[in-house]
Amino acid sequence: MENNTVCQSCSMPLDNVALRGTEMDGSPSGDYCKYCYQYGAFTHPGWALNDMKAHLTRMMDKEKMPEDILEAAINRLSHLKRWTNNNVDTDLHKQDGF
User: Exposed, middle or buried: residue 16 (CB in 10 Å: 0-12, 13-18, 19+)?
Assistant: First the structure.
């Protein structure tokens, strides 16, 4: 059976346990990848949704991913666990009033 689990922060597929982040006790996270979550905390705790969108765009452009894959990943973000609770669609500078 195919695993359709994705990181609930960046939407990266978590088909391989080696891609999973870690909880405080070092056990694999059921929700997040190793790039977003380590030892029970986000690797970029101050990021807003737009920060993640920009990061994904940079990374996927670097990897020369097809535009439709990038678009699907970006569109999925606002539905993921990390972003639905915060529902933040601004970057940190806008939050600070800059």
Answer: exposed
